[in-house]
Write a structure and sequence with these properties.
Vanillyl-alcohol Oxidase, Chain A, domain 3, FAD (chains A, B), seven-stranded antiparallel β-sheet, alpha+beta, Uridine Diphospho-n-acetylenolpyruvylglucosamine Reductase, domain 3, 19% strand, 3 domains, homodimer, Oxid_FAD_bind_N (chains A, B), 18 helices, FAD binding (chains A, B), FAD-bd_PCMH-like_sf (chains A, B), oxidoreductase (chains A, B), globular
Chain lengths: 470, 470
């Protein structure tokens, strides 16, 4: 909180001069609105919220905060799931929401240059109007911002065919904690010119610099897609079908897994029972193919439908039209919200090599049994990325805040044994950092801390996220 | 050279104990064989060549060299074009040639784990036998090593559809200059777990650590491909056709540009005049499409063939069969050798956003006229990656070693103005580092130097490559 002694308070006039008095907020309602993101039920009040309008303003703010050692938490839309935008040390929340312009859609080069505060879906629609395609689309695409997607190296359902955010970022304008403004690379598809600063910034969760311009490569938009929902009587079979599909040479544009609970809960949540679920069904795969030739897509769908029969699936639902596709996708996209509305929960963002999914799922359930928690699992099975939602339900507060962590550790240790890691697309942020030593030893962590120290010697920028300072 | 005082000489016994006496070389013939790579006519003798057999041996060697501040130059096959493997400071050449095993082809997860000393084409063929595809294939794939490809973030003709090396590297085992051995990530397709050390190592040209194991993702191998060679009466038209093809929604699996000289010289070099070149033809595009459905590929080829007519092309040569395809590809792959055999030359590896290619080419020719040099241009036009081969020809030694550099600077300044950069796939190494400040300012360079310092505080590993130490 701001006190007479607070170094933040002493800078309020300077902040007002830099960003304009109308964009410096200290009233409790605003502070409260910027105190949480979508991570569990966590809440930390900042001392001040700044809404700068240009990279130059951000540069001046960071220069002051570096000198005065004031913590700065950059924030996009606050839809993160690992606490990256939580101002857990107080100080400044620096909102990028006013940097919300798409600066250039370059149809000649299939590139877009955008500011970070653009809603991801707005960006997708804008390039779509030119026949172009920006594939990464987190479930929150209607509310998250592209800058946050860069910070977390987001994925989403299309990643299985098209890759994640990092695969589309060509070049970034970044304000460093020193106030220097740099570009990380060039607007080119191939680059062997010095160290890859671009990829170092992608996924660095706002700890190394503040991204103020983003150059993304685009693709021609595929002209058609087809979608089917396949029920399974065994979740392990569903997971096993996933890697069989790829081994058979198919590359679906989405391959999503949902446990029965996930689908039932979300249908209740959105009040839509489009999908009849037989009693013996325990999981579904949502499978999409896309491309420019409908005959090829039909053949692919038939081939995949034949293949999944070998895994004891039930009756396949083929989406008839655009509306049914949209409804099925809405169900998948809103599972997270449905789970959240149902109970306090923790979401783990496990990722393993795709063929290890059956082992991961069986292991999660066994660990749940041991520690007495229920889990609802769903996610991007085609990438081996399984969201494990641990439901508080009847669990005592003591177990929830105590022994449960041991259970999570066991899940992550299993993930590591299977060749995977503890976050596929949500980041480490605040809530996963205690688990980071499960996958990185002191040598690796020392390199990461050294990089942090190099970019941010005074430790102002999202300090204490990903890992604690030494 | 080794002298009684040389710190290298004092360690020979230790090196022999670590890697075995049979793998420590100080005889002049061996030193000479490791004194050059494929970069111009440069030649630097190392003091000793070591051929370790395991990461642990490399670890022990690096520990000693760090303590004793002995320069270490890691080396794959020595096919590099920017001098990355040249031991310009003497000291140790550390050859990775004995780490030449493919450790695991994981058909379940579409991944391969390999040591760095495997020839790229050997790796491609090994996964091909399982129906799998590792796309990046530099022209030197028959002789270069996969570890060198990682070091330089190599590309090759398939990059236009499939991306470059960095897009396939999931995880790396790296020996740090301290002797510590780490993995940089996990064997997963999505990863939001800490800073991306993997992508920091890719393209770092052996300056940060020595890669000893590589995990690559693979694709199902496409079943068919089609190839055509299109002659143009204007090089600018050829370049303009390139971006038109992408804007029309086609994604060829290769889209290569060759000036008339390039094609004529290579046909002479390999003694094969498969391609009749009309008098008015000044450039060619070699265009490949690949996929699993031959009907779709035929349609794509027809569409592209129709489109290129708008750019005043000549008679298109469609490759009839596998042999003709192989011959056309051989021509393209050996252009570099043909140019080299023809004259002393310098090769610049320019890259710009694809639609700026006509401007780049026109600019290169204008600058050549101004400085009196002839250039032969070819390369991966689909990526905007143009190899500019500057021919010594009748140029005086004085101009070659003097004013020519100003001409190169002008080319690179143009590249930068067009949104590009000075190396697309060859790296900076030794011969391009003087030009690096054209694209990076002191802030960016300080970050890169800081990263180098963090990984290699004693500055032993490929020191003086990419940039000079501060």
């Amino acid at each position: 909180m701001v006190t007479a002694e607070s170094p933040v308070l002493r800078q309020l006039d300077a902040f007002r001069r830099i960003v304009g008095a109308g964009f410096v907020f200290v009233d409790p309602e605003v502070l409260d609105a910027y105190a949480s993101d979508e991570t569990e039920d966590l809440h930390y009040l900042p001392d001040v919220v700044l809404k700068p309008g240009t990279p130059e303003e951000i540069s001046q703010v960071l220069r002051i905060c570096s000198e005065q050692r004031i913590p700065v938490t950059p924030r996009g839309a606050g839809t993160g799931l690992s606490g990256g935008a939580l101002p857990h040390l107080g100080g400044v929340v620096l909102s990028l929401e006013r940097l919300n312009r798409i600066l250039d859609i370059d149809e000649r080069n299939l590139q877009v240059t955008t500011e970070p505060g653009v809603i991801t879906e707005v960006l997708q629609n804008a390039v779509r109007e030119k026949g172009l395609f920006y594939p990464p689309d987190p479930s929150s695409r209607g509310s998250c911002m592209i800058g946050g997607n860069i910070a977390e190296n987001s994925g989403g359902p299309k990643a299985v065919k098209y890759g994640v955010v990092k695969d589309y970022v060509l070049n970034l304008e970044v304000v460093l904690p020193s106030g220097d403004i740099i570009w990380t690379g060039a607007n080119v598809l191939k680059n062997a010119t010095g160290y890859n600063l671009t990829q170092l910034i992608v996924g660095s969760e706002g700890t190394l610099g503040i991204v103020t311009k983003i150059v993304l490569r685009l693709l021609p938009h595929p002209q058609h897609d087809l979608l089917m929902l396949v029920p399974f009587r065994s979740a392990e079979n569903a997971c096993a079908a996933v890697s069989a599909i790829f081994r058979a040479g198919y590359t679906p544009s989405a391959l999503e897994f949902m446990e029965r609970d996930a689908l039932e809960w979300v249908m209740r949540f959105v009040d839509n029972s489009i999908v009849p679920i037989q009693d013996d069904v325990v999981a579904h795969l949502l499978i999409e193919v896309d491309g420019n030739d409908m005959d090829v897509l039909m053949k692919d769908m038939e081939g995949i439908a034949t293949l999944v029969q070998e895994f004891d699936c039930g009756d396949i639902l083929f989406a008839d039209d655009a509306q049914q596709k949209a409804e099925l996708w809405k169900l998948r996209r809103r599972v997270g919200e449905a789970v959240k509305s149902n109970s306090i929960y923790k979401e783990e963002d496990t990722v393993v090599p795709r063929a290890e999914l059956p082992q991961l799922l069986a292991g999660v359930k066994a660990i749940g049994k041991k520690y007495g928690f229920h889990s609802v699992c769903y996610g991007h099975a085609g990438d081996g990325n399984l969201h494990v939602n641990i439901i508080k339900g009847d669990l005592s507060d003591e177990a929830w805040n105590g022994s449960l962590k041991e259970g999570i550790r066991e899940i992550f240790a299993l993930v590591k044994r299977l060749g995977g890691t503890i976050s596929g697309e949500h980041g480490i942020g605040l809530v996963q950092k205690e688990y980071l030593p499960i996958v990185f030893n002191e040598v690796q962590l020392a390199l990461m801390r050294g990089i942090k120290q190099l970019f941010d010697p005074n430790g102002i920028l999202n300090a204490g996220k990903i890992f604690d300072p030494k």
